[in-house]
Amino acid sequence: MPVHPYSRNLHTVGQLRAMERAALAALGISGPELMRRAALAALNSLRRRWPQVRQICIHCGPGNNGGDGFLLGVLAREAGLQVEVVALTGASHGDAAAARAAWEAGGGRIRQWDAQGHLPEAELHVDALYGIGLNRAPEAAAAQLIEAINGSGRPVLALDVPSGLDTDSGSCPGAAIRADATVTFIAGKRGLYTGRAVDQAGAVELATLGVPDSVYADVSPDAQLLAAEALPPRHRHANKGNYGHVLVVGGDHGMAGAVRLAGESALRAGAGLVSVATRAGHVSALNAARPELMAHGIDGPQALASLLERASVLALGPGLGQAAWGHALWLTALEADKPLVLDADGLNLLAREPRRFGAAAVLTPHPGEAARLLGVATAAVEQDRFAAARELARRHGAVVVLKGAGSLVADPDGRLDVCPWGNPGMASGGMGDLLTGIVAALLAQGCSAWQAACLGVGLHARAGDCAARHGERGLLAGDLLVPLRALGNGMAESGFEHE
After folding, report:
1. Burial class (CB in 10 A: 0-12, 13-18, 19+), 323
2. 220 is in an annotated binding site
3. Is 127 among the annotated ligand-binding positions?
4. What is the pLDDT of residues 269-326, one digit of tens each?
């Protein structure tokens, strides 16, 4: 991750435009000079990532992003690279017109894109079509050029934002560049880190272009990237009673694995005690597989009452089901009004019977569950994950983790953090159960709901990345438990193997 003091801050397009105006005033420079700085940062990124490349093709749109591309062409040619430029239109506007003229003044040739034509030969393509200026599907000609670039089989560097990606939401209304890397300018953009953007942007690098700290200090970010954190070391005189008692409620017939994973991850994340309230038929298997879990067969609400009294935090939902047994336990657990993590069928029941929470609560929906809670289609959630997470947090008075690529953590006041870790191997059964147990354990150890959600999401995703070193395909939820323990204790993310 970048080392700039404001590198974790993420902004909306409106904020970015205001910051750019403030930067020009603070630096006392013109728009073309800022554009030249962006072009130089792009050239440096290109040569650092692909030092062997000698032949590039830059694709320029009509606005300022295209201007960055034209000036990159000027600088790249001066650096000895062979440069081809493809323009989407016959003219550029604003400061980009001067950049286009500078390219042509040095003898640069511009090939206007013809949908019937072919891309020039190149070892690398640079996307400078739209940047932050597009929040709709690209028009037909641009879409054809984007698809041609994506299908070229060559690496792609995007300038500021991959064209076709909505900078605010991370969604793609139509065709969008799939970049190997994106060098983004001045400040972080929130849409680069969640949803479709995780595939489209590739490796993201921030180039601040020499903008002074005062510009960043004057604008509160809309969101932030999570920081890599761990819990502090324990006192030497600690005992298990100091670290809370998590009660996992769930595991209807055939779902013992869900409560085992949630319970075991709670133990590995440091809870002092973990009990499991589940179907009686699961108890023997749980005792044999993980005797540290205190498994109890529960046939209804009355049997659950004594366990609720002893618990400090509830993990409600893994494998719970929505039939009479699960619904009765759900109601009884919520009436205890204890800090809790609600997941899986606990969320599906909440969609049927909405409520706001009084005690500390963390909800951990995937997009489908979020859609049911909001009464909308899943596609609507994915179209604006930021708005969905914030609305869920506001509506239920809880901290919400909207899971998926670039998981979001939102609180009822609108604060939001974005997780920059995780991988496709984690798209497998049981991963959500692990997260439920981790967050519950952190609540039990004294974290606030916000702290538990942020730290838990980060540990879960980073453990997944460590486990994926052995390959993403075939990754199991249980593979995360060893790196989870190491990361929770502040150990380095390398130097340990799976048991």
Report:
1. exposed
2. no
3. yes
4. 999 999 999 999 999 999 999 999 999 999 999 999 999 999 999 999 999 999 999 9
What pLDDT does 244 receive?
96
**Three-state SS at 123:** coil
The answer on whether 66 is annotated among ligand-binding residues is: yes
Please check the confidence at residue 115 and state whether its pLDDT lies above 80. Answer: no
For residue 150, say whether it is annotated as part of any ligand binding site: no
Q: Does 163 appear as a known binding residue?
A: yes
134 known member of a binding site: yes
- CA distance linking residue 185 with residue 219, whole number of Å: 16
The reply, when asked if residue 300 is annotated as ligand binding, is no
Q: How would residue 254 be classed by pLDDT, with cut points 50, 70 and 90?
A: very high
pLDDT above 70 covers what percent of the chain?
98
90 is in an annotated binding site: no
Has 405 been labeled as part of a binding site? yes
Beta bridge partners of 85: 58, 110
Strand order in the sheet with 245-249: 188-189, 9-11, 223-225, 416-418, 408-410, 399-402, 361-363, 340-342, 313-316, 245-249, 273-278, 294-297
Q: Which domains does the chain have, with CATH numbers?
A: 9-225 (3.40.50.10260), 240-488 (3.40.1190.20)
180 a known binding residue? no
Ligand-binding annotation for 327, yes or no, is: no
Mean pLDDT of 483-497: 79
User: Would the annotation count 403 as a binding residue?
Assistant: yes
